[in-house]
Amino acid sequence: MKIGLFTSGYQRNPLEHAFEDAKRFGYDYIELWGGRPHAFAPDLKNGDINLVKRLIEEYEMPVRVYTPEHNAYPYNFMIGTEQMRSDAIDYLKLAMEMGKEMGAEFTLMSPAHAGYLTTEEEIWHRLIESMKELTDYAEKINHKIILEALTPMESNVCTTANDLARVFAQVESDHLVGMCDLVPPFVQHESIMAYFDKLQDKMQHLHVIDSDGTSDTHVIPGEGMLPLKELVQELNYIGYVGTATIELVTAYLNEPRFYARRAINNLKALMD
């Protein structure tokens, strides 16, 4: 299992710190957060992609996953007018282009909140329409989309393994795959391992973090309530060899370098 560093927690630091730390702390790859001031897709298109390529080469640290910010500010393809949806889709197409150019295998997408007054029928129609359009483009440029389920605190669209499986049944493509962030199933009392059973070969990525059991807060591995040691043992048992990003987001912004080191040390101890 390859372990990745997520750069969102470094957004108040130079992006180079994340690449430097990934190398010196023993991470295998970078999952690159696509928001300003670092790797916002339009900024990459305007020349910042060269900085990312330089960092990849200098630190010998590949970007395996590109995760553009699109959970409301300013893009969310699940809410607002058709023009707002179209703008978000165009943005994510550009994100896929940039992900492919930097050598990433995947661009990660997570359908955000669709609004409290939106009906289930409207939600599902918009989701499938959007994913078909995005997947068609992924096929065109030969790039893969990872679709992520969020917690119910974050979204009312796609929050379970069943939701992901339903999307894959309606949008059939080798260029659209799935993943499991450990927090959504844990806080909903859903089986984490059921993702592997329900998604089968579509299950290609993990966000490995810990949880307080009640909120969407992402906690350093080993410092929350998740039985991570046993989870790692099950992953070994089923032979999971995919990617696993330690997704520290905003809870540790003050000292990302301290916590990125502690996070991988904790996870490796659990793996041993």
From TrEMBL:
<protein>
    <submittedName>
        <fullName>Fructoselysine 3-epimerase</fullName>
    </submittedName>
</protein>
<dbReference type="InterPro" id="IPR013022">
    <property type="entry name" value="Xyl_isomerase-like_TIM-brl"/>
</dbReference>
<dbReference type="Pfam" id="PF01261">
    <property type="entry name" value="AP_endonuc_2"/>
</dbReference>
<dbReference type="InterPro" id="IPR036237">
    <property type="entry name" value="Xyl_isomerase-like_sf"/>
</dbReference>
<feature type="domain" description="Xylose isomerase-like TIM barrel">
    <location>
        <begin position="19"/>
        <end position="269"/>
    </location>
</feature>
<dbReference type="InterPro" id="IPR050312">
    <property type="entry name" value="IolE/XylAMocC-like"/>
</dbReference>
